[in-house]
Amino acid sequence: MNRLKNKVISMALIFSLGISASGCGLIEKSPEAIAKQRVAKIGDEYITRGELDEMFTPMLEQLKASPQYGADYLESAEGKELLKSQKTETLDGMIEQKLFEQKSKELNLFKDENEISEGIKTSRDNLVTAYGSEEELNKKLEEAKISNELFDKILRGQVISQKVTEHIIKDVTVSDEAVQKYYDENKASMTEQPNTMNVSHILLKTEEDAKAVKQRLLNGEDFATVAKEKSTEEAAQQTGGDLGEIMYNDPNYDQDFVKAAMALKEGEISDPVLTQFGYHIIKVTKKTEYPIQEFDAVKDSIKYQLVYDEQYKVYSDALSEWREKAGVEVYEDKIV
């Protein structure tokens, strides 16, 4: 208490003498000054720390209330890194929104501000319908710590970005030839149901060890018994190397491993297969394969996916081009 009292007296003395302490770093920046700090530049426009903090508040409150994190965690070094990462993502979204706004003005996509306001109202009305009532929507916003003012800003951004996106992707098409080509090159993945295989493996550190294990298996030793003895995978002690049923091209497994397994016949044992985890000896005990669907049965879904992929590429390339032209700058030291 005495230290605080002395500090107050000292500051009063400084001001009574008309001495400026700002140049000496003795006065911290006020919340108002921090809020005015620029965190990003997009062309001739800026995003301030205050605008970023306002947009980030709902996320911050959710992190504080989260059992996984909480307010105390956010004060730790790891928590502060998490906050910076999340705020940087939020800022990136705000930068993209600025780019959309600038592009909408350049293209004259809205006749006036009223058209944007009408879009905001339509979006809000749709959400009221989805939630059943205005009261329910407001309840959800309150739970998410989103003020009505912030919500209108979010909806405004969506209205503008949707209009711009629709404009830049409107001419995207995919030819029937491209659809046919995709089908011909990917028939194996277009079965009536996903093809599966039952796979076992033994994981080893060196190729030499893997070759020795394969020879033991070829000599008739039991796969599960050898796996429990030699595999460096901890689970092998319980599973005997049995991975159960996995899909062809299963994204949850190393793709070099999956491709090697797919190439095997039922009962066949692989040569050593190198992946990021080490050397594997693989055995496929069962394969379940289904008929390939006819072109006419899948052509619409293929076309839909190809159009979507091309639209996303146009969208992504456009954003990259706009960022470069706008000379986007981010002032990372001002984010938190």
TrEMBL record:
Keywords: Isomerase, Rotamase, Signal
Reactions performed catalytically: [protein]-peptidylproline (omega=180) = [protein]-peptidylproline (omega=0)
Domain of life from the UniProt record: Bacteria
One Pfam family named in its UniProt record: SurA_N_3
GO molecular function terms attached to this record: peptidyl-prolyl cis-trans isomerase activity
Signal peptide: 1-21
PpiC domain location: 194-286
E.C. no: 5.2.1.8
Enzyme class: isomerase
UniProt protein name: peptidylprolyl isomerase
Lineage start: Bacteria, Bacillati, Bacillota, Clostridia, Eubacteriales
